[in-house]
Amino acid sequence: MSILAGKKALIFGLANNRSIAWGIAQALHEQGAELGFSYAIPQLEKRVLPLAEQVGATFVEKCDVTSDEEIAEVFAKAKAHFGTIDILVHAIAFAQQSELEGRFVDTS
Predict the structure, then answer these.
(1) pLDDT of the chain along its 108 residues, tens only?
(2) Which of 33, 40, 68, 94 is close enough to 4 for a disulfide, judged by CB 3.0 to 4.6 Å?
(3) Is 17 part of a structural domain of the chain?
(4) What is the 3-state secondary structure (H, E, C) of the chain?
(5) Is residue 94 part of a domain?
(6) Is residue 86 part of a domain?
(7) Number of domain units in the chain
(8) What is the CATH classification number for the domain harbouring 67?
(9) pLDDT confidence of residue 66
(10) Domain-embedded: residue 102
(11) Is the pTM of this model over 0.85?
């Protein structure tokens, strides 16, 4: 039985097939949720669209979460598309490249 059948999930922060957002999306999809995605920058679209297609996502939008206007616009579009959003996933992450260099235990 699909425990999330009929539920609508909007996932912020999908970047590629190695992102936490993708793992969450797959689990939600397996349980029957209808999915929508946001991604941060235009360059990610070419990675995100094929993933969205794999799970039958019907809503994909770019969203710069540092912009209140873009956030409001994405939520307005999502409301128009889905009606109600039952699940919201925040999987947005950012780190300076220099913070990811060196030993893992030294990462801030």
Answers:
(1) 699 999 999 999 999 999 999 999 999 999 999 999 999 999 999 999 999 999 999 999 999 999 999 999 999 999 999 999 999 999 998 777 777 787 878 766
(2) 33
(3) yes
(4) CCCCCCCEEEEECCCCCCCHHHHHHHHHHHCCCEEEEEECCHHHHHHHHHHHHHCCCCEEEECCCCCHHHHHHHHHHHHHHHCCCCEEEECCCCCCHHHHCCCHHHCC
(5) yes
(6) yes
(7) 1
(8) 3.40.50.720
(9) 93
(10) yes
(11) yes
Tokens of residue 77, six digits: 């579009």
As given in the structure block, the two tokens for residue 15 are 């970047």
